[in-house]
Every structure is written in C-alpha cells, then in structure tokens.
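Annex B, item 7. Sequence and structure tokens for protein A, then protein B.
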Amino acid sequence: MNADAFLAAVKGKLIVSCQALEDEPLHGPSIMAKMATAAKIGGAAAIRANSPADIRAIKEAVDLPVIGLYKRGGSGVFITPTFDDAAAIAEAGADIIALDCTDRQRPDGVCLRDLLMRIHDEIGKPTFADVSALEEAQAAAEYGVAMAGPTLSGYIDGPPESAEPDYALLGAMISALPIPVIAEGRIHSPGQARQALDIGAWAVVVGSAITRPRTITARFVSALRDGNPC
C-alpha cells in the first residue's frame, strides 16, 4: 500500500493503536490480533502495532492497513531506532513504518536523514514521523516522510506535564507542514478525538483509552480516589 492509498483510507477516521508491553497482562501476538479484530468491528480504519510478531498476527487477522513500529529498549530513541528494526516490521507486513524523528542521537549513531533515505530507497515503504516539536516535524518532512504526528510531545524529558493532548503543537504542525498530520498522544475521549479533527488533523490515533484495560482502570480509580476526572 502506498502513502496515497493509506491516507485516503484513513482520512477523517480512527486509527487504533493495539500495543501491550511485556509487563502488561495482554502482551502477546494472539491477544493483539483479537484486539485489532475488535477495533475493526468497532469501525477502526487502521491499526498501529508494535513488533514484528504482533504486526504479523494482526495482518493475518484483519485486512486493515497497519502502521508498524518496533520498540527497542525503554529510554532515548526506542521507537524503530535502526534500519534493521524498520526492515523487520516491513517484512512482517507493516504498510507504514513509524519511527522516532526527534533530534536526539540514535543508538547506532546514524543520523535521521540517512536512516530515512535508506528506508525509502531499500524498503520502499512510507514513513510516519513521531515527533515532539514543530522543528523536528519540519525536518522529517524535508527528509521525505509521508505523514507526521505529535506522538512524543511531552515524553522526551520524563512524564508529560499535562494529561491533555498537545493541541497547540498539533495545530502548528497542521499549519506549517506540507504533509498530512495525524493526531496522536493522550487522546482519552471521543470529544478530544473530535476536537483534533476539527483543528485539522488528517486522522486520529487512539491507543491506551481503547486497548489498555490496566491504564483505563487506573484512570477510573484515580478519579474516584482523588476527584481527578483525567
């Protein structure tokens, strides 16, 4: 699937992020495949998924396009940090390759421009830039990414200060970039997702609020204990 076909398929729609890390009860390809199936039945237009194993299982279970990523480690640049990681998720069936496009140093020392050039030349799949700032998004767009999202806003130097989506960065990216911007990050409710579209987002990615029962439960517990509705 090329970028134009993917973007047409998700325009104005919901992309569900089906991910569970190793310390979570729902971790495992078969469970993520069932989660993706439930998301499709609910009307999701695409899936975002982590690791070759999960991507392969999801592609076998549903016929939706998949934004693939590969989380390696837990700090620094860990979302698809290297070419080999991008190649692995492409081989597993990812239609779009998502990767950290912040200005931080990558673990193998390869600069982002060279990495994106190699992905585009040798793998030939569209890329999705996960960024934390407008300047990072602009650089990634210059390097040929097909789409970008404020996925990493607030997460670079520790937990985000706000539980709300970064609508300011989203709006700035939409205004400044020549490529579609997909809203992602801390979108907890249908109203917040709708607001992202109203601002001008091409599509909306929602993950934890749909596919992570542990996180959802903790939010309810916090609201009952502390009076915090977030």
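Protein B:
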Amino acid sequence: MNPIAEFRRTQRAVGQGGFHTASVRAPVPGGQDFRFAYDCGAMTRYAGARQREIEAYVSELGGPGSRLDVLFLSHAHADHINGVPKLLAKGAGVKVDTVVMPLMPNAERLIAFAASVAADPAVARDAFVRSFTLDPVAAMTAYGPRQILFIRGGDGDGGPGSLDVTPMDPPRGGEAVFSEGGGEGRMQARLIGRGSVEVLATGQRSGTGVAAIAIPDTSAIALPALDHSPCWLLAPYVDPGVTAGRRKFMTQLKALTGRKWTATSWGKDLGDTLKDKGGATKLRKAYEAVGHDLNVTSLCLYSGPAQGLKGAAWREPSHWPWWGWPAAGWLSAGDSTLRKASIGDELLRHFRALLPQVGTFVLPHHGSENNFDAARLDAISPALTVVAADAYKKWRHPGSSVVQAVASRGLPMRVVTSDPRSALIERGRVWK
C-alpha cells in the first residue's frame, strides 16, 4: 500500500523540561514538511542541554530563518517555555507562523510563575518568563508570528475524528485561521471541528500585524493528503486548573505582599513585587503555603492519523528489539492530573475516537506520582510510554510506583534526560 503521509518526531534531551519536535509530509517528490513543536524549555541547571538541542533543531530545519509552522506551548511553567527566546531569536532562530497555547486566567499564570520560582529561583530574573506571565500576547508578538491561537476548553463533546472534517468558519470580520490550498507537495493546514472562533485582537488594531484568536478544543488542525482528505490531526484538549487552589493562592499572595492584585492592578503588582527585596521569596511562600503541585491549565495534544486511517511507527535505531508498533499516534498529557477522576475521565472521553491510534504516550508532569493513574494508562493502551525528566533535588520524576505500574503491564518506558543518548526519535507512515 502506498503511504499518504510520512512523519518524524523527536523527544529532545533537554533535561528537566520539555521539547518535542515533529514534521509530517506528503510522500511525493519535492514534498515539503509541515513542522511543529510542543514546548521548548528546561530548568536553569539544564540550560546547556536546552541550548544544544535548540541549536541542533534550528540546524535540522535549515538554519536561522527557517520555517516553523506551529509552536504549541502546553502551559506557563518556565521549564516548558523558557527556551522560546532562543528558538525564535531573530537572526539565529526559526521563524514561526502560528503559536498555540491554552487560554489561561491571570491567576493561573501567576501560580505557574510562583511555582517556577519556588523550584528554580533563577526564573525570577528571566525577562521572557516574566513577560509571558504578564501578557502572553505581547511576549509572543515580539517574535513576529502571524497569529496566536488560544485554546479554550469545555465547548462540546470531545475532539474531532476523521468524520468531523467540516472547516470552521472564520471569525466575523476576520480571515480563515488556516487557508486552503498551497503549493504542490505542501501540506497546507486547515482548521476543522465544531464551535465558534473569536478574534481577541487583530494585527491592525494592535499595529503589530499579529492576530490573537480563541478557538475551542473541539477543533483540530488537520493536514490533508494529496486528495485533500485529512490524514493527520493536531487535536488539543485543555485540562482546566483547580479554581479552589487559585483562590487560596491569591489570598496568601495578598497577605504576604500587602498589594491588591485586582484585575486592573495585578500586572503592576507583580512588577513591584519583583522589584522589592524578598519579592520573589514572597511569591514562593504564597505558593508553598497553598501546597505543592497546584494544577494549572494545561494543553494536552494528540498528534497522529485521523480516525479510520492506518499507520505504523518505528524507533531509531531500528535494530533495537521492540522497534516498531502498528499505531502511529502520539499523545501528551501535558501537566494534567489524570489521577483526578473529573480530569482523567474527561481526557479519555475527549480523545475516545482517537485513542486506538495512540502508540506513544507521554506521561503527565514528568511521570509524577501525583498526576498518574494506572486505569487511564490501561484505557489508552499505548505501545510505548515516555517521560521527559532529569534529576533535581529529591523529585521523583518518574515516580517509582509509576515505573512499576508501567513495567507490570509489559510496557517499555523511555526516560528522556539531558543525555543526548536518551533522545527518542520515531519515524512512521500513514495509509488508507
């Protein structure tokens, strides 16, 4: 059978953090890759590994100024976003067309920032992470994407499969998020699914040329085969944060800083707090007073064949014993707390049409025991599990009970650390 798409993906060795890169192409002479990445960051102690992997990726794409079609950012923790300035640096990095991230309340970005400072004090001095916390649109606009897509959750009954191929209408007064067509051999993305598209800010209004658009997680970015039918989906799911945790955190923060932290003042309050002596410590104490591992809004992502298509993946080098499996899809649970029934069950329901396609599953929150649930692993039933983590203090990433649960099911686990030898490279094909 002739393949209708070929793909390559890499979980890159950046240490405690996350950096996943991938491409899909139509298997025709001169076919062009559709290129995307999911997160780009690592803790400060792994800055060298992060820089090495970013430089290697830029080189793989063709050098500075090369095209990156989509950059997904799963959430606002520093170890998932602090590599963005290097990746998108003008004159040294790549040029991104579209940035995709979850729609995050102000309080959740503050929690993510405080959590990052608590774990990695150097984050308090990171200008990009601070800018992203204050205003994600402004922070990303500085790198010149064509558009920024915010994914909102809870709009409907699950994500799209191959039967749900209706192109989504453009927002009122705006252009299509992704257009039809493209040159010969080019995999031109289009937005499919259900729900409404909302313009949050237009490039004309801001004077930057960058549009900010909100779309539901009942949509997906579809890559069509040469016959224009969807062959590959980039389907999101937004795991909502815990409202009670946000309220407790803000109460503690107000008490510790003596500031109001209202909707209109919080940006100035954060800036002033960081200028104060001990301001970063107050943020850390507010976070630790509420408890560790507060769940924040996280963007999960399915990357794989549309429902009903067949695919296969193999790992490189292919001479390794368990080198291939008949499921080409990849699913990352981001930082989702799968052990919480309301979150884990909803994720499974959302992706139910696509779960049979999942061969590679990235465990949530670096394999933390606080986020893992063996029943959800059984429901997904992947052929391979992946953990992006490295040594830090006494963190159990991955947790021993997680390792045992995976091993007891006869599943391999790949732990991707800062060592280049741990990187996971997969290739595969999709056919009808």
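Comment on protein B: The mean pLDDT is 87.
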